[in-house]
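hey
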């Protein structure tokens, strides 16, 4: 987990990751009928990363795990406000996404029935959450990539081929 001296960088890194998952969800949204679980998973993960970015920006260490309701409660205690109807909008979306992902059911086949928000409602509210966290971090989500400092280096190898 981040140390105290690199939390602002980690907050931006988490927001950058959230932005990637959010953009992927937005691109898949129109194919929702065929890609039901991946779209919900992407919105779920966007919320998780955005909430953790908010907490890290305040030097609050987020709890490990994927409990969206606990993260959201901690963010509210620390001043996160999205709009006048937070409890009915983001609070419900957070709760429904968390309960919908019980037993990681956005990633794995489980037999448990569940209750989910409509995808269009989730899309609207997750977009508002992203904007609120970006404003808090003073970031323009349209910049590519989200500005900040490097927190790691990824080396990606391609397939090796033999020359003639």
């Amino acid at each position: 987990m981040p140390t105290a001296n690199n939390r602002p960088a980690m907050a931006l890194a988490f927001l950058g990751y959230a932005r990637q998952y959010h953009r992927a969800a937005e691109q898949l949204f129109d194919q929702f009928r065929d890609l039901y679980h991946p779209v919900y998973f992407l919105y779920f993960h966007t919320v998780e990363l955005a909430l953790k970015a908010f907490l890290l920006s305040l030097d609050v260490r987020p709890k490990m795990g994927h409990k969206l309701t606990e993260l959201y409660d901690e963010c509210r205690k620390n001043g996160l406000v999205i709009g006048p109807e937070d409890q009915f909008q983001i609070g419900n979306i957070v709760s429904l996404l968390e309960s919908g992902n019980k037993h990681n059911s956005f990633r794995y086949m489980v037999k448990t029935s569940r209750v989910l928000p409509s995808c269009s409602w989730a899309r609207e509210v997750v977009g508002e959450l992203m904007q609120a966290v970006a404003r808090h971090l003073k970031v323009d989500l349209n910049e590519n990539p989200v500005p900040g400092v490097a927190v790691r280096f990824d080396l990606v190898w391609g397939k090796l081929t033999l020359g003639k």
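The domain at 4-136 is CATH 1.20.120.330 (Four Helix Bundle (Hemerythrin (Met), subunit A)). The longest helix spans residues 7-28.
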